[in-house]
Amino acid sequence: MGSYRKKSEKFFKMKKIYPKQKEFIFLLIKGAIIILGTLAVLVPFIYLFLNSIKPEFEFLSVPPKLFPSRIMTKYYSSLLASGSETLKFLFNSLLVTGATTILAVFGGALAAYSLSHLRVSPKTISIIIFSILLVRFYPKITTVIPYFILMKKFHLLDTLISIIIAHVSITVPFVVLLMMSFFREIPPSIEESAKLDGCNVWQVFCKIVLPLSSPGLATSAVLTAIISWNEFLIASSLASVNAKTLPIAVSSFITDKGILWGPMSAMTTLIVIPIVLFTLLLQKYLVRGLTLGAVK
């Protein structure tokens, strides 16, 4: 970014562009990048929604049609009908995501607070952080068989508890790394003042540290919820009938007779809505958390 700015400044000097013109050009470039990024995010979702209201014969039409010739809502009505299992899958996803988010954020915050107050050498902290990162780096496919064997021994296959345990294990390291940066920014004098006023460690953590770290908690909650809500690989290996979540239900539309594009597009659209609403609800804290946590 720095080299790009230097080159652009040289260009402006060569062309004798005035400061106001230069500022306008920078704003124009920035706006174009924002618009392109927004389109890259929204266009796939818009296309997905249009597919969910298309007639069946238009999915594989040549040339392909972007807009449906007529709007059909039968895919949504069939998914949300009284005899459909979609609401059951939705409840399973909400329960798994909610429990995973609460356990991972609270447990990860406790671990991060402990690690941020360790009086050890920087080398030891680096080893601990590397160990935490190692859990995030290895492919999830390598954990599927061990998780399956463990849950089978504990008789937890096809239960929501098994999926929650798996999701917590893959999201806690992320929460720990994120929250450590927030806890290190809190001045030690604030905690010392609370202790002088009679607060114990638990009271300092709950009444002082957590409120000051609310942007980080919100950021961790949103990103943890997104990971858990969209996770498919481990959940599909642990759930067969009773504990199916929405991502697993979407894969059931791929059959030996073909792909049911309409129902798949409709269910995928429904999957996106809850997590978007949750993100919008915590948007204010999410922006603050992503910026404050990166400042040293």
UniProtKB/TrEMBL annotation:
Signal peptide: none
GO cellular component, one term: plasma membrane
Species this protein is from: Aerophobetes bacterium
SUPFAM superfamilies reported for this sequence: MetI-like (SSF161098)
Protein name as annotated: Carbohydrate ABC transporter permease
UniProt keyword annotation of Glycoprotein present: no
Domain ABC transmembrane type-1 span(s) in chain numbering: 90-282
Family affiliation: Belongs to the binding-protein-dependent transport system permease family.
GO biological process, one term: transmembrane transport
Main location group: membrane
Keywords in alphabetical order: Cell membrane, Membrane, Transmembrane, Transmembrane helix, Transport
PROSITE patterns (UniProt xref): ABC_TM1
Origin superkingdom: Bacteria
InterPro entries xrefs: BP-dep_ABC_trans_perm (IPR050901), MetI-like (IPR000515), MetI-like_sf (IPR035906)
Segments passing through the bilayer: 24-50, 89-113, 125-149, 161-183, 204-229, 259-282
Subcellular location: Cell membrane
Membrane-topology annotation of the record: Multi-pass membrane protein
Pfam families hit by this protein: BPD_transp_1 (PF00528)
